[in-house]
Design brief:
This protein has 166 residues and is of the alpha/beta class. Helices cover 42% and strands 21% of the residues. It contains five helices and eight strands. β1, α1 and β2 form a beta-alpha-beta unit. α1 crosses α5. The protein starts with a strand and ends with a helix. The mean pLDDT is 88.
């Protein structure tokens, strides 16, 4: 199957999660295009899509929301998975999903959205982002669990097998 992997990621941590998912899909024999949301003109040539986004100030990235607005009707015609990263720390905070996750998932008909813990590196942040991290007392560091990411990607492979057979 030809699969679109599109991830909105300001500092690259969420894009790295998407790359792991794309690798697992490729290992299972799928043709995966990794394209930034702003660069996706059409999704009509794909059999399935995986949408990913970092969370900024409690919302999915604007570029992913814009893609969903532009291509929602086409995305609803294919299998779609949605993931986001954003919670950091141990335990991960914040513990709740951003409000727009359900809205985006419904708009594209995504299967159950998945959250992965993220990464915050102070050296990568601009002044406003550092202020927000300090204000919210977000823990810095890399909390990503790539075994968990690979496991979820394996679930996608299994689901794609049933979609392809149907």
């Amino acid at each position: 199957m030809k699969i679109l992997m599109t991830v909105a990621s300001r500092h690259g941590a969420t894009r790295e999660i998407g790359a792991v998912v794309a690798d697992v899909l490729r290992e299972a024999g799928h043709d995966v295009d990794e394209v930034a949301p702003d660069e996706v003109e059409h999704v009509a040539g794909y059999d399935a899509a995986v949408l990913g986004s970092a969370v900024y100030v409690g919302r999915l990235a604007a570029s992913l929301r814009d893609l969903v607005e532009r291509q929602g009707a086409h995305l609803r015609s294919m299998p779609v998975w949605l993931f986001w990263s954003g919670p950091v720390g141990d335990p991960p905070m914040p513990p709740t999903a951003p409000d727009d996750v359900d809205v985006v998932a419904r708009h594209v008909g995504a299967r159950e959205p998945r959250c992965f813990v993220g990464r915050i590196e102070r050296t990568e942040l601009n002044l406003n982002e550092r202020a927000l991290v300090a204000l919210t007392r977000a823990e810095t560091g890399d909390f990503r669990d790539f075994d968990d990411v690979r496991s979820w990607a394996g679930e996608l492979v299994a689901e794609l097998a049933t979609v392809g057979a149907g």
